[in-house]
Design brief:
Belongs to the short-chain dehydrogenases/reductases (SDR) family. The chain is an alpha/beta fold and about 350 residues long. The protein folds into two domains: about 55 residues, no CATH class; about 270 residues, NAD(P)-binding Rossmann-like Domain (Rossmann fold, 3-Layer(aba) Sandwich). It is about 50% helix and about 10% strand. The chain is built from eleven helices and eight strands. It has an eight-stranded mixed sheet with strand order 3-2-1-4-5-6-7-8, with helices on both faces. The longest helix has 24 residues. It is globular and about 75 Å long. It starts with a helix and ends with a helix. The mean pLDDT is about 95. The chain binds NADP nicotinamide-adenine-dinucleotide phosphate.
Protein backbone atom coordinates (compact mmCIF):
# COMPACT_ATOMS: atom_id res chain seq x y z
CA UNK A 1 0.00 0.00 0.00
CA UNK A 2 1.41 3.43 -0.95
CA UNK A 3 2.49 5.57 1.99
CA UNK A 4 -0.35 8.07 2.51
CA UNK A 5 1.85 11.17 2.14
CA UNK A 6 -1.15 13.13 0.81
CA UNK A 7 -2.67 13.04 4.30
CA UNK A 8 0.46 14.69 5.73
CA UNK A 9 0.58 17.36 3.05
CA UNK A 10 -2.93 18.70 3.67
CA UNK A 11 -2.11 19.57 7.31
CA UNK A 12 -1.55 23.30 8.06
CA UNK A 13 1.85 22.52 9.60
CA UNK A 14 3.00 20.86 6.34
CA UNK A 15 1.86 23.84 4.30
CA UNK A 16 3.73 26.08 6.73
CA UNK A 17 6.89 23.91 6.41
CA UNK A 18 6.73 24.03 2.61
CA UNK A 19 6.28 27.80 2.73
CA UNK A 20 9.34 28.09 4.99
CA UNK A 21 11.41 25.96 2.62
CA UNK A 22 10.25 28.04 -0.34
CA UNK A 23 11.29 31.22 1.47
CA UNK A 24 14.74 29.84 2.33
CA UNK A 25 15.30 28.83 -1.32
CA UNK A 26 14.07 32.21 -2.57
CA UNK A 27 16.36 34.03 -0.17
CA UNK A 28 19.37 31.98 -1.30
CA UNK A 29 18.55 32.65 -4.95
CA UNK A 30 18.24 36.41 -4.31
CA UNK A 31 21.44 36.46 -2.27
CA UNK A 32 23.60 34.62 -4.82
CA UNK A 33 22.13 35.79 -8.14
CA UNK A 34 20.07 38.97 -7.83
CA UNK A 35 20.70 41.40 -4.98
CA UNK A 36 24.10 42.65 -3.92
CA UNK A 37 25.35 43.43 -0.44
CA UNK A 38 24.19 45.51 1.62
CA UNK A 39 20.72 45.55 -0.03
CA UNK A 40 20.33 41.90 0.85
CA UNK A 41 19.86 42.89 4.53
CA UNK A 42 16.94 45.14 3.63
CA UNK A 43 15.52 42.38 1.41
CA UNK A 44 15.89 39.85 4.25
CA UNK A 45 13.99 42.07 6.71
CA UNK A 46 11.14 42.58 4.23
CA UNK A 47 11.01 38.85 3.45
CA UNK A 48 10.90 37.92 7.17
CA UNK A 49 8.03 40.35 7.79
CA UNK A 50 6.04 38.96 4.85
CA UNK A 51 6.88 35.37 5.89
CA UNK A 52 5.66 35.94 9.44
CA UNK A 53 2.35 37.44 8.30
CA UNK A 54 1.57 34.69 5.78
CA UNK A 55 2.94 31.86 7.92
CA UNK A 56 0.83 32.90 10.92
CA UNK A 57 -2.22 32.31 8.76
CA UNK A 58 -0.93 29.04 7.21
CA UNK A 59 0.14 27.29 10.43
CA UNK A 60 -3.03 28.21 12.35
CA UNK A 61 -5.35 26.48 9.88
CA UNK A 62 -9.11 26.74 10.30
CA UNK A 63 -10.76 28.04 13.46
CA UNK A 64 -13.67 26.82 15.51
CA UNK A 65 -14.86 29.12 18.25
CA UNK A 66 -17.85 27.58 20.05
CA UNK A 67 -20.51 29.72 21.68
CA UNK A 68 -22.82 26.90 22.87
CA UNK A 69 -24.06 27.29 26.42
CA UNK A 70 -23.13 24.03 28.18
CA UNK A 71 -24.97 24.76 31.41
CA UNK A 72 -26.17 21.42 32.92
CA UNK A 73 -23.75 19.43 30.74
CA UNK A 74 -20.95 17.33 32.20
CA UNK A 75 -17.75 16.90 30.22
CA UNK A 76 -14.84 14.63 31.14
CA UNK A 77 -11.36 15.45 29.84
CA UNK A 78 -8.46 13.06 30.42
CA UNK A 79 -4.91 14.38 30.55
CA UNK A 80 -6.00 17.92 31.34
CA UNK A 81 -2.97 18.74 33.49
CA UNK A 82 -1.05 20.13 30.55
CA UNK A 83 -1.13 20.85 26.84
CA UNK A 84 -4.15 20.40 24.60
CA UNK A 85 -6.24 18.74 27.34
CA UNK A 86 -5.81 21.68 29.68
CA UNK A 87 -6.69 24.18 26.92
CA UNK A 88 -9.75 22.07 26.03
CA UNK A 89 -10.94 21.84 29.64
CA UNK A 90 -10.58 25.61 30.06
CA UNK A 91 -12.64 26.38 26.93
CA UNK A 92 -15.39 23.96 28.02
CA UNK A 93 -15.49 25.48 31.51
CA UNK A 94 -15.79 28.94 29.91
CA UNK A 95 -18.90 27.62 28.12
CA UNK A 96 -20.35 26.86 31.60
CA UNK A 97 -20.05 23.06 31.48
CA UNK A 98 -19.28 21.08 34.62
CA UNK A 99 -15.83 19.80 33.65
CA UNK A 100 -14.34 16.74 35.33
CA UNK A 101 -10.62 16.38 34.69
CA UNK A 102 -8.78 13.09 35.12
CA UNK A 103 -5.19 13.66 36.22
CA UNK A 104 -2.52 11.54 37.89
CA UNK A 105 -2.41 12.32 41.61
CA UNK A 106 -5.48 13.55 43.53
CA UNK A 107 -3.79 16.63 45.06
CA UNK A 108 -2.50 17.73 41.64
CA UNK A 109 -5.92 17.09 40.06
CA UNK A 110 -7.59 19.29 42.69
CA UNK A 111 -4.97 22.03 42.33
CA UNK A 112 -5.33 22.17 38.54
CA UNK A 113 -9.14 22.05 38.79
CA UNK A 114 -8.96 25.04 41.13
CA UNK A 115 -6.62 26.95 38.80
CA UNK A 116 -8.91 26.34 35.80
CA UNK A 117 -12.09 27.24 37.76
CA UNK A 118 -10.45 30.46 38.91
CA UNK A 119 -9.28 31.36 35.41
CA UNK A 120 -12.84 31.44 34.01
CA UNK A 121 -15.07 31.46 37.08
CA UNK A 122 -16.15 27.96 36.05
CA UNK A 123 -16.94 24.59 37.61
CA UNK A 124 -13.99 22.23 37.24
CA UNK A 125 -13.58 19.12 39.38
CA UNK A 126 -10.34 17.13 39.54
CA UNK A 127 -10.11 13.39 40.23
CA UNK A 128 -7.14 11.07 40.23
CA UNK A 129 -6.94 9.03 37.03
CA UNK A 130 -4.01 6.93 35.93
CA UNK A 131 -4.82 5.38 32.56
CA UNK A 132 -1.85 3.04 32.88
CA UNK A 133 -3.52 1.40 35.89
CA UNK A 134 -6.91 -0.18 35.16
CA UNK A 135 -7.93 -0.26 38.83
CA UNK A 136 -7.46 3.53 38.92
CA UNK A 137 -9.62 3.83 35.78
CA UNK A 138 -12.35 1.87 37.56
CA UNK A 139 -12.10 4.03 40.71
CA UNK A 140 -12.37 7.16 38.56
CA UNK A 141 -15.39 5.86 36.63
CA UNK A 142 -17.18 4.97 39.89
CA UNK A 143 -17.13 8.65 40.90
CA UNK A 144 -18.98 9.73 37.74
CA UNK A 145 -22.75 10.19 38.02
CA UNK A 146 -23.40 11.83 34.64
CA UNK A 147 -21.49 12.46 31.43
CA UNK A 148 -22.54 14.16 28.20
CA UNK A 149 -19.15 14.40 26.51
CA UNK A 150 -16.12 12.19 27.13
CA UNK A 151 -12.85 13.50 25.75
CA UNK A 152 -10.17 10.80 25.61
CA UNK A 153 -7.22 13.16 25.27
CA UNK A 154 -4.37 11.88 27.47
CA UNK A 155 -1.42 10.44 25.63
CA UNK A 156 2.17 9.31 26.04
CA UNK A 157 5.18 8.69 23.82
CA UNK A 158 7.68 6.23 25.29
CA UNK A 159 11.26 6.34 24.08
CA UNK A 160 11.97 2.91 25.54
CA UNK A 161 9.64 0.00 25.99
CA UNK A 162 7.85 0.33 29.32
CA UNK A 163 4.91 -1.49 30.87
CA UNK A 164 1.72 -0.40 32.59
CA UNK A 165 0.79 -1.60 36.05
CA UNK A 166 -1.25 -4.33 34.36
CA UNK A 167 1.73 -5.53 32.30
CA UNK A 168 0.75 -4.01 28.94
CA UNK A 169 3.18 -2.12 26.68
CA UNK A 170 2.78 1.40 28.04
CA UNK A 171 1.94 3.39 24.87
CA UNK A 172 -0.81 0.99 23.83
CA UNK A 173 -1.86 0.42 27.45
CA UNK A 174 -2.24 4.13 28.23
CA UNK A 175 -3.32 5.69 24.94
CA UNK A 176 -5.76 2.97 23.92
CA UNK A 177 -6.56 0.34 26.59
CA UNK A 178 -6.92 2.86 29.43
CA UNK A 179 -9.36 4.91 27.35
CA UNK A 180 -11.09 1.82 25.99
CA UNK A 181 -11.81 0.64 29.55
CA UNK A 182 -12.87 4.09 30.73
CA UNK A 183 -15.28 4.42 27.79
CA UNK A 184 -16.60 0.91 28.41
CA UNK A 185 -17.35 1.75 32.07
CA UNK A 186 -19.03 5.05 31.19
CA UNK A 187 -21.00 3.70 28.23
CA UNK A 188 -24.32 3.24 30.12
CA UNK A 189 -24.17 6.94 31.15
CA UNK A 190 -23.18 8.01 27.63
CA UNK A 191 -26.06 6.03 26.12
CA UNK A 192 -28.43 7.61 28.63
CA UNK A 193 -27.30 11.14 27.70
CA UNK A 194 -26.93 10.39 23.95
CA UNK A 195 -23.41 11.61 24.55
CA UNK A 196 -20.34 12.20 22.45
CA UNK A 197 -17.01 10.40 22.76
CA UNK A 198 -14.03 12.24 21.32
CA UNK A 199 -10.75 10.37 20.81
CA UNK A 200 -7.68 12.54 20.35
CA UNK A 201 -5.63 10.58 17.83
CA UNK A 202 -2.82 11.92 15.61
CA UNK A 203 -1.81 12.17 11.96
CA UNK A 204 1.09 9.96 13.10
CA UNK A 205 -1.31 7.01 12.74
CA UNK A 206 -0.21 6.90 9.08
CA UNK A 207 3.05 5.28 10.20
CA UNK A 208 1.19 2.23 11.50
CA UNK A 209 1.64 -0.88 9.37
CA UNK A 210 -0.99 -3.35 8.21
CA UNK A 211 0.55 -6.28 10.14
CA UNK A 212 0.69 -4.46 13.49
CA UNK A 213 -0.10 -6.58 16.56
CA UNK A 214 -0.81 -3.36 18.60
CA UNK A 215 0.62 -4.92 21.76
CA UNK A 216 4.23 -4.33 20.55
CA UNK A 217 5.37 -7.90 21.06
CA UNK A 218 8.03 -7.39 18.36
CA UNK A 219 11.16 -5.23 18.50
CA UNK A 220 10.22 -1.87 19.98
CA UNK A 221 10.15 1.33 17.95
CA UNK A 222 8.91 4.55 19.58
CA UNK A 223 7.28 5.99 16.46
CA UNK A 224 5.57 2.75 15.47
CA UNK A 225 4.28 2.14 19.01
CA UNK A 226 2.84 5.68 19.12
CA UNK A 227 1.42 5.40 15.58
CA UNK A 228 -0.24 2.07 16.43
CA UNK A 229 -1.82 3.51 19.57
CA UNK A 230 -3.16 6.48 17.59
CA UNK A 231 -4.56 4.15 14.90
CA UNK A 232 -6.22 2.28 17.79
CA UNK A 233 -7.88 5.58 18.87
CA UNK A 234 -9.41 5.88 15.38
CA UNK A 235 -10.52 2.22 15.27
CA UNK A 236 -12.04 2.64 18.74
CA UNK A 237 -14.16 5.60 17.57
CA UNK A 238 -15.33 3.88 14.38
CA UNK A 239 -16.24 0.68 16.21
CA UNK A 240 -18.03 2.59 18.98
CA UNK A 241 -20.09 4.31 16.33
CA UNK A 242 -20.84 1.06 14.51
CA UNK A 243 -21.82 -0.80 17.69
CA UNK A 244 -23.60 1.92 19.67
CA UNK A 245 -24.54 4.61 17.13
CA UNK A 246 -28.12 3.34 16.99
CA UNK A 247 -28.36 3.87 20.77
CA UNK A 248 -27.64 7.58 20.34
CA UNK A 249 -23.91 7.61 21.10
CA UNK A 250 -21.67 9.60 18.74
CA UNK A 251 -17.95 8.88 18.55
CA UNK A 252 -15.27 10.92 16.78
CA UNK A 253 -11.51 10.72 16.18
CA UNK A 254 -9.22 13.63 15.42
CA UNK A 255 -5.74 14.98 14.89
CA UNK A 256 -5.37 18.22 16.90
CA UNK A 257 -2.56 19.64 14.72
CA UNK A 258 1.10 19.94 15.64
CA UNK A 259 1.61 21.84 18.87
CA UNK A 260 5.31 21.94 19.66
CA UNK A 261 4.92 23.53 23.10
CA UNK A 262 3.19 20.60 24.86
CA UNK A 263 4.81 18.10 27.23
CA UNK A 264 4.29 15.13 24.88
CA UNK A 265 7.29 12.81 25.03
CA UNK A 266 7.96 13.41 28.73
CA UNK A 267 8.98 17.06 28.79
CA UNK A 268 12.12 18.49 27.26
CA UNK A 269 15.60 19.09 28.61
CA UNK A 270 17.38 22.42 27.94
CA UNK A 271 19.13 21.10 24.80
CA UNK A 272 15.92 19.63 23.37
CA UNK A 273 14.10 22.89 24.10
CA UNK A 274 16.72 24.81 22.10
CA UNK A 275 16.69 22.26 19.25
CA UNK A 276 12.90 22.03 18.97
CA UNK A 277 12.04 25.72 19.51
CA UNK A 278 12.50 26.64 15.78
CA UNK A 279 9.67 24.17 15.04
CA UNK A 280 7.32 26.42 16.98
CA UNK A 281 7.14 28.67 13.91
CA UNK A 282 5.43 25.78 12.09
CA UNK A 283 3.14 24.85 14.96
CA UNK A 284 -0.35 25.80 16.14
CA UNK A 285 -0.84 27.68 19.40
CA UNK A 286 -2.31 25.79 22.37
CA UNK A 287 -5.86 27.27 22.01
CA UNK A 288 -5.74 26.43 18.28
CA UNK A 289 -4.64 22.90 19.26
CA UNK A 290 -7.87 22.49 21.24
CA UNK A 291 -10.14 23.67 18.41
CA UNK A 292 -10.59 20.38 16.52
CA UNK A 293 -11.38 18.60 19.81
CA UNK A 294 -14.01 21.26 20.58
CA UNK A 295 -15.30 20.95 17.02
CA UNK A 296 -15.83 17.18 17.48
CA UNK A 297 -17.31 17.67 20.96
CA UNK A 298 -19.80 20.38 20.00
CA UNK A 299 -20.27 21.06 16.31
CA UNK A 300 -23.07 19.59 14.18
CA UNK A 301 -20.64 19.63 11.25
CA UNK A 302 -18.45 16.95 12.85
CA UNK A 303 -19.36 13.50 11.60
CA UNK A 304 -19.73 10.54 13.98
CA UNK A 305 -17.46 7.58 13.18
CA UNK A 306 -15.10 9.78 11.14
CA UNK A 307 -11.59 11.18 11.50
CA UNK A 308 -11.18 14.97 11.71
CA UNK A 309 -8.35 17.41 11.46
CA UNK A 310 -8.17 21.19 11.21
CA UNK A 311 -11.82 21.53 12.29
CA UNK A 312 -13.27 19.42 9.48
CA UNK A 313 -13.64 15.82 8.32
CA UNK A 314 -10.35 14.65 6.80
CA UNK A 315 -9.32 11.39 5.17
CA UNK A 316 -7.42 9.07 7.51
CA UNK A 317 -4.94 6.48 6.21
CA UNK A 318 -6.36 3.62 4.08
CA UNK A 319 -5.51 1.25 6.96
CA UNK A 320 -7.66 3.33 9.34
CA UNK A 321 -10.69 2.59 7.13
CA UNK A 322 -10.21 -1.18 7.45
CA UNK A 323 -13.34 -2.19 9.37
CA UNK A 324 -12.17 -5.81 9.81
CA UNK A 325 -9.01 -4.57 11.58
CA UNK A 326 -11.14 -2.25 13.72
CA UNK A 327 -13.32 -5.17 14.80
CA UNK A 328 -10.26 -7.34 15.53
CA UNK A 329 -8.80 -4.60 17.72
CA UNK A 330 -12.12 -4.25 19.57
CA UNK A 331 -12.16 -7.99 20.28
CA UNK A 332 -8.50 -7.93 21.38
CA UNK A 333 -9.18 -4.95 23.66
CA UNK A 334 -12.22 -6.65 25.22
CA UNK A 335 -10.17 -9.78 25.85
CA UNK A 336 -7.38 -7.75 27.48
CA UNK A 337 -9.88 -5.89 29.69
CA UNK A 338 -11.60 -9.11 30.73
CA UNK A 339 -8.25 -10.77 31.58
CA UNK A 340 -6.78 -7.82 33.43
CA UNK A 341 -9.82 -6.74 35.42
CA UNK A 342 -11.02 -10.20 36.53
CA UNK A 343 -9.83 -9.63 40.08
CA UNK A 344 -11.36 -6.13 40.54
N1 LIG B 1 1.25 17.99 20.64
C1 LIG B 1 1.04 17.54 19.42
O1 LIG B 1 1.64 18.04 18.47
C2 LIG B 1 0.07 16.42 19.16
C3 LIG B 1 -0.11 16.03 17.84
C4 LIG B 1 -1.01 15.00 17.59
C5 LIG B 1 -1.70 14.40 18.62
N2 LIG B 1 -1.48 14.79 19.90
C6 LIG B 1 -2.25 14.11 20.95
O2 LIG B 1 -2.83 15.08 21.79
C7 LIG B 1 -3.07 14.54 23.09
C8 LIG B 1 -2.58 15.51 24.14
O3 LIG B 1 -1.18 15.62 24.04
P1 LIG B 1 -0.37 16.97 24.32
O4 LIG B 1 0.40 17.28 23.09
O5 LIG B 1 -1.23 17.98 24.94
O6 LIG B 1 0.73 16.42 25.33
P2 LIG B 1 0.89 16.60 26.90
O7 LIG B 1 1.04 18.03 27.26
O8 LIG B 1 2.00 15.67 27.28
O9 LIG B 1 -0.48 16.06 27.48
C9 LIG B 1 -0.72 14.70 27.68
C10 LIG B 1 -1.45 14.54 28.97
O10 LIG B 1 -1.71 13.15 29.16
C11 LIG B 1 -1.50 12.87 30.53
N3 LIG B 1 -1.16 11.47 30.78
C12 LIG B 1 -0.07 10.80 30.37
N4 LIG B 1 -0.07 9.55 30.89
C13 LIG B 1 -1.19 9.44 31.63
C14 LIG B 1 -1.76 8.41 32.42
N5 LIG B 1 -1.15 7.23 32.57
N6 LIG B 1 -2.91 8.64 33.06
C15 LIG B 1 -3.55 9.83 32.95
N7 LIG B 1 -3.06 10.86 32.22
C16 LIG B 1 -1.90 10.66 31.58
C17 LIG B 1 -0.35 13.75 30.93
O11 LIG B 1 -0.37 13.89 32.33
P3 LIG B 1 0.97 14.03 33.21
O12 LIG B 1 1.20 15.50 33.28
O13 LIG B 1 0.62 13.41 34.51
O14 LIG B 1 2.07 13.30 32.48
C18 LIG B 1 -0.63 15.02 30.18
O15 LIG B 1 -1.42 15.91 30.92
C19 LIG B 1 -2.34 13.20 23.10
O16 LIG B 1 -3.27 12.16 22.95
C20 LIG B 1 -1.42 13.27 21.90
O17 LIG B 1 -1.18 11.98 21.36
C21 LIG B 1 -0.60 15.79 20.19
Amino acid sequence: MAFPIKILLIEPESRSAMFLLGNVLLFMYMMFFVISWPYIIIYLIVQIIIFQRVNQHLRSGRSYVPTTNLNNQTVIVTGAATGIGRATALELAKLRARVIIGIRNQARAERIAQELSKQCNGNVIGYHLDLSDLSSVKDFAQKIDKVDILINNAGVVKRQKEYTKDGLEATFGTNHIGHFYLTHLLLPLLIKSHGRIVNVSSVMHIFSKEDTDFIQNRSYNTIIAYADSKLANIFHATELQRRYGDQGVRAYALHPGTIASTELGGGKGPLETVLTSPFQILSKSMPQGAMTTLFCALSDEAQPGKYHSDCRITPASPLASNSRKAQELWELSEKIINDKTKSF
